[in-house]
What we know:
The chain has helices spanning about 20-30, 30-55, 95; strands at about 65, 70-75. The chain is mostly helical. It has a domain at about 20-75. The chain has a two-stranded antiparallel sheet.
Amino acid sequence: MYREGRDVLTPDGRPVGKDADRVARAIGKKTSYGRQVAHTSWLMYEYTAMQALHQAGAAVPQPFAAAENAILTSYHGDAQMAAPILAEVALEPDEARPSSTRRCATQR
């Protein structure tokens, strides 16, 4: 459902063009090619979302480049430890609300 209705993106971030039907069949059949295309498309959506969030001033790593299986970003954390991934973060309701005076734990 997360990807339903989305265009399939190529490694350069553009929607699949003339081969869209063939690619859709490969994804639907879950062939190795279809799984790779689906993964690359998901990665490119993540990359473009990170670009938009970073440009809007959100506290996300700056994305520099994307390849078929990785996104190169700026480092967030300190000399001892990287900032936690979102799956490892649990916020209390008051921490999740926007505040002009409060800073998140990774920015302290």
